[in-house]
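User: Teach me something about this protein's shape.
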Amino acid sequence: MKRFFLLILSLWKQKLKIYFVAALIGAIIGVLLLAPIYDYVDSQKQEDTIASAFDFMWGQIIELLKGNIPKNNFILFYAEIGAMLGLLTLGIYSFLHKRLHRIDLLKMELDRDIPSIIRQGEGPFLEFKSTFRWDMEQSRTNRQLEGVVLKSLAGFLNSNHGGTLLIGVADDGEIIGLENDYQTLKKPNQDGFEQVIMSAIAANLGADLCSHVSILFHVIDNKTICRLIVSPSARPVYLNQGNNPKLYIRTGGATRDLNIQEALEFSSIRWNRTNY
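Assistant: First, the predicted structure itself:
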């Protein structure tokens, strides 16, 4: 029981008041519903004649509301059980709500056709990249260009709404395609390109974030482009390049990194945390 109240106190201090309310409601249900049910079942075993289940439970509830608590430890026990069930229910609801929200965002994005997306131009939720690792100026592979794409992905992950990144499209909307990027891969096709993208995300941003990026391929004017639909992350995302991890955010149609103080302030507001 002591541990339970310490947990509730800890949650309250972290400003997670919704969890406190869920635990409180669960505890009340445990006392007013679970405990009377137990007493009713136990009474059936001991007596031949007994009131209906509803009358018995209603009588128990009235007694509890009057402050006539039975002289046993089951009330506290069922309060704890109810509180735990309340927290569990809230946790499941929060998880499902986030999943459904991500699915809704993905469905909305999929309903939009690529030509109309390109015509709207770059903005806070949309960015174009000509290539992933092919240097068009030097006509060779340039692995440093991967960092440019990863910065954009990190910015979308750290935003409140995510975004879409199109690879194979120039800044002015010209369709470049992925054919040059394919030449740099051991597996020069869509599957190989997707594997390289996901490996880069896992290695530089975090393996847990791969599920936040959906990859699609589209063919326009006989050229293949890659569409990355990014959903917001539940935690701050730092891009690890060398020994200097940085937090990137979207500002208008661009992505920029934050200094330490800015990153701390942004994280405390964006995720309601103070430990970053």
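Now, about its shape. Residues 150 and 200 are 8 Å apart (CA to CA). The beta strands are 126-129, 134-135, 140-141, 163-167, 213-220, 223-230, 238-239, 246-251, 254-257. If you'd like, I can walk through any region in more detail.
User: That's plenty for now, thanks!
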